[in-house]
Amino acid sequence: MIKDFYSQSTEYLFIPLEAHFEYQNPEYMANSSLAIRRANRTHLSMNVIFNYLQDVYEPEIHCEFKTFRNNEYKPTGIAFDLSLCDLMSDADLNVYKELMSDGIHGNIPECDDVMPKGNYWMKDVVVSSKIKKSIFLPGKWRTEFVVVDKNNVKIFAGATVIQIDEILSN
User: Fold this and answer.
1) Is 98 strand, coil or helix?
2) Which of 3, 32, 88, 144 shows its CA 20 to 30 Å from the CA of 119?
């Protein structure tokens, strides 16, 4: 009998390996940080601090997902470019939307083409089963992201790496 890979009896184990900002434009950001940790067996928790030194107009994000094969990270074809404000404001695109501005898990405001100067944070925001099993298969995954403003000035760039392992449930 062939195992149904996408069955409900399959769980994923998420293992955080790294998370960091690779670049912060000193004119726009300072003392910002990104961290992921294991919340429990199958969930990750993310903590982010953004310290914007000035308003960022029409921020755009480019995000690309890569998998580790043959001793290097290779593009998967999963990538997107879109308005950071749209990403943060759209509940269908942003699985963190409810938590980002609740005052307990975050204070990130919705933005309308401008991310205002200020100190923003998200803490203990859980990445959970909303991740599609049909896309993110077991293996080592690297997410690379870059945010630029309307003049294509790089505001920040970073990466996260997680290991996804399959757990078979009875």
Assistant:
1) helix
2) 144
Which of 71, 137, 148 minimizes the C-alpha distance to 115? 148
Residue type, 91: A
Q: Tell me how far apart the alpha carbons of residues 110 and 52 are, in angstroms, rounded to a whole number.
A: 15
d(CA 99, CA 77): 29
* Cα end-to-end span (Å), the chain: 16
If you average pLDDT over residues 96-121, what whole number do you get?
A: 78
Give the pLDDT confidence score for residue 91 in this predicted structure. 65
Higher-pLDDT residue of 57, 132: 57
| Residue in the block written with tokens 């769980």 | 11
**Beta carbons of 90 and 82 less than 8 angstroms apart:** no
* pLDDT at 43 > cutoff 80: no
Topology given in CATH for the domain delimited by 12-168: Ganglioside M2 Activator Protein; Chain: A, (2.70.220)
Q: Which of 16-25, 66-75, 125-134 has the lowest mean pLDDT?
A: 125-134
Q: What is the model's pTM?
A: 0.82
What is the C-alpha separation between 78 and 29, in angstroms, rounded?
A: 28
**CA angle, 74 then 76 then 80, to 5°:** 120
